[in-house]
Design a protein that fits this description.
The protein has five helices and twelve strands. With 268 residues, the chain is α/β, with parallel strands linked by helices. Helix 2 crosses helix 3. The longest helix is centred in the N-terminal third of the chain and has 22 residues.
């Protein structure tokens, strides 16, 4: 007799598969740990911030208008203008680091001979002070309707009226290449001021120099340059002779004391 199977079927056994992988083996190799994140020192941060602050401050100091000279306080001016002194200083629009007081003083003294003394001081942020002492005027020079005061250095400035004292000279203003009154003319006027001669108008004539009018009415050509005292001595002798002889010349020329001459007919 055959055995009847029960209603359940036997399941086939499940096969389990085993997989293996092969990998090369490297002798001496160890797994490398993951690199740690770099750390920033606080000191380095402060250093970078400090450098940046210095660069910013330097740029502000270099380019800020606050540190550029845009004007100056000028004291002591009487006949000169404060603007002329400031312009001569050469300080305008200079950075305060380049504002050289000694150089400014030299420029003012060179360009404005009427300044006898000058002191320049500059400081932060861009403050400059200029103190000047002007030369005292020596004489008055009249050119047409214009009046000038002339000092001993040959500098001259416009004036509203003649000086109460000193010589008054009429005629073209003789200037040298440096723009000052010719030294020979100034020397003659200074010596003329020391002579025992009554103050009177003096005429300047190019080519002949200083000319005065004798109380007898004729012109006396004195010339220019030093030696005025000698010329006046010679003129005194010539004048005595003319008066004794009853001669009334149109002029007497003593520019060359060793050879004075006069004329009764010629204008000059």
């Amino acid at each position: 007799m055959t055995k009847r199977s029960s209603g359940k079927k036997r399941q086939p056994p499940v096969r389990r598969h085993r997989y293996e992988t092969a990998s090369p083996v490297v002798l001496g190799w160890r797994p490398v740990a993951e690199a740690a994140a770099p750390t920033v020192s606080v000191g380095w941060v402060l250093l970078v911030l400090g450098v940046a602050a210095l660069v910013g401050a330097g740029a502000w100091f270099s380019f800020s208008p606050r540190f550029y000279v845009l004007g100056a306080q000028v004291t002591g001016v009487e006949r000169l203008s404060a603007g002329a002194v400031y312009e001569a200083s050469g300080l305008d629009r200079l950075h305060i680091l380049w504002a050289n007081a000694a150089a400014a003083e030299a420029r003012i003294a060179e360009q404005l001979p009427s300044v006898e003394r000058v002191d320049v001081t500059c400081g932060l942020p861009a403050v400059c002070l200029i103190a000047v002492t002007e030369r005292a005027p020596l004489l008055t020079w009249v050119v047409g309707e214009q009046v000038f005061w002339v000092d001993a250095a040959g500098g001259f400035t416009p004036a509203a009226e003649p000086l109460a004292e000193g010589w008054a000279v009429y005629g073209p203003l003789p200037t040298a290449e440096d723009g000052l009154v010719e030294p020979d003319v100034l020397a003659a006027l200074e010596e003329l001021g020391e002579a025992d001669l009554a103050r009177q108008p003096v005429t300047y004539r190019p080519g002949r120099g200083l000319v005065i009018i004798d109380e007898q009415g004729w012109r006396v050509i004195l010339g220019q340059g030093t030696g005025m005292d000698r010329r006046l001595q010679v003129y005194a002798l010539v004048r005595t002779y003319l008066l004794e002889q009853g001669i009334r010349p149109r002029f007497v020329d003593v520019r060359f004391p060793e050879a004075p001459y006069y004329s009764e007919t010629n204008e000059w």
